[in-house]
Amino acid sequence: MFLDSLKGWSRAQRHTVFAAYLGWTLDAFDFFLLIFLVSDLSKAFGTSIEAITWAITATLALRPLGAFLFGRLADRYGRKPVMMIDVMLYAGFGFLTAFSPNLAVFLVIRALFGVAMGGEWGVGASLTMESIPARSRGIVSGLLQAGYPSGLLLASAVYWVLYPLIGWRGMFMVGLAPALLVLYIRRNVQESPAFHAEKAKTAPNALAVLKEHWRLALYAMLFMMAMNFFSHGTQDLYKTMLEIDHGLSHAWISSINLVAAVGAILGGLAFGALSQKIGRRRALILGALLALPLIPFWAFSSSPWLLGVAGFAMQFMVQGCWGIIPAHLNELSPAEARGTFPGVVYQLGNFLASYNATMQARIELSYGSYGAALAVVAAGAAIFIAVFAFMGREARDIDMAATAHERV
Questions:
Q1: What's the confidence (pLDDT) of residue 402?
Q2: What is the C-alpha to C-alpha distance for residues 31 and 117, in angstroms, rounded to an integer?
Q3: Top CATH class, 4-186+206-407
Q4: How far apart are the C-alpha atoms of 292 and 275, rounded to whole Å?
Q5: Alpha-carbon distance 207 to 19, whole Å?
Q6: Which of 47, 68, 274, 324 is deepest in the core (most CB within 10 A)?
Q7: In 3D, which of 277, 267, 278 has the Cα closest to residue 321?
């Protein structure tokens, strides 16, 4: 079943999937560099950890703007050229972060990075889902979303190996590397078969589409809010929790994050493939509910070995749910705005969850435990996801190319 879904692809389809996966991987890599450097930045700028978390909040809060801007451009001018521009921008802003002279400039640069980061997911996901066979969407959805934990895995490895040698500024300089992806996209990736430049000129305005489908947009936005609390609530201050609550060393923190990232990648692939068989909604409910009994071991274990095992299992479930999202959102999306709709509702949900890191830092100040803050958010998000997935609808077998031709 798994291998059958990967058969019969053209060379162009393979390049498209690989490019979209790398785009999200390297985007996440640049984002997670900040996550590993929160303590260093607070010391470098002479401020609190809470103040640094506002950079995370700003990055997440401005992603909806990027999703809308780049999504509209993708619906108007095509997925491929807009994706190339977006990759150049997020790599450039990631690199500029290294030269921040103070906290204010740092926050501005990270906000601009958030705009660019917000554009990549929607454009890459629509390009991919419109280019592959319908039977492959489940496993490719998992593969595409596995780019996010792959970025965490890459950032963990770079932090482990290079941080002692190059420090926090050098780490951000490494963030320029994703710009090389543009050369690969330009040479190997073809435009989406569902995009037609002439018809795009008469396509409905994205705001009109969102207004027409406002119930779907509201549902998807709230659902993605829960999904973002689920991921960011279990990741953004996870390294800080291991460092402060559990007093673990640099080597242990790096190792546990690497193990968790591997679990996340495998979970995304497994649940993406499973969703092709049992449906997107059932797979989402299963992953969310299975995360609940893992939370006490993941947040409060005293043994670093048990923290590592629980970290693997927890991210298997969290990113297992996320592995379903690229296919699910694109299948639910109105065809005439597929470059815009999935990315915008995803990032609007992200906006609603953007306060997560700062909120968790404040909970820690009240209760003296990052573990408690992370556990409360993870449990609440998991329950919300299960309920909303149950309430939603299934569109697993929709023919995206045919629908796009009919509606555009």
A1: 52
A2: 8
A3: mainly alpha
A4: 20
A5: 29
A6: 324
A7: 267
Q: Which helix (H) or strand (E) holds 347?
A: helix 341-352
| DSSP letter (8 states) at residue 335 | G
Q: Which residue has the tokens 């408690």?
A: 372
Predicted local confidence at residue 201, as pLDDT: 55
Please answer whether residues 79 and 126 qualify as being in contact, where contact means their C-beta atoms are separated by less than 8 angstroms. yes
- Whole-Å CA distances, 120 to 35, 113, 372: 19, 11, 33
Q: What is the four-CA torsion angle of 58, 108, 106, 350, rounded to 10 degrees?
A: 20
Provide the b/e sequence for 43-72 (b: ≥16 CB within 10 Å): ebbeeebbbbbbbbbbbbbbbbbbbbbbbb
pTM here is: 0.74
Q: What does R_g of the chain's alpha carbons equal in angstroms?
A: 20
DSSP one-letter code for 189: P
Q: Which residue has the tokens 């694109």?
A: 330
Greatest distance between any 2 Cα atoms in the chain: 61
Extract the tokens encoding 329.
């959102």
Domain ranges of the chain: 4-186+206-407
Write the CA distances from 103 to 41, 44, 111, 112, 357, integer angstroms.
Answer: 9, 9, 12, 14, 17
Alpha-carbon distance of 125 to 220, in angstroms, equals 16
Q: Which pLDDT value is given to residue 200?
A: 56
CA 300 – CA 378 distance, rounded (Å): 13
- Cα–Cα distance for residue pair 93/176, rounded to 1 Å: 8
Q: Would you state the pLDDT for residue 288?
A: 96
Helix (H, G, I), strand (E, B) or coil at 325: helix
**Do 323 and 141 contact (CB within 8 A), yes or no?**
yes
Task: Return averaged pLDDT per consecutive 10 residues of the chain, 408 residues in all.
Answer: 63 85 84 84 86 84 85 82 88 91 92 87 80 80 82 84 88 84 81 63 62 84 93 85 85 86 90 89 95 94 91 94 87 73 81 82 82 91 94 73 46
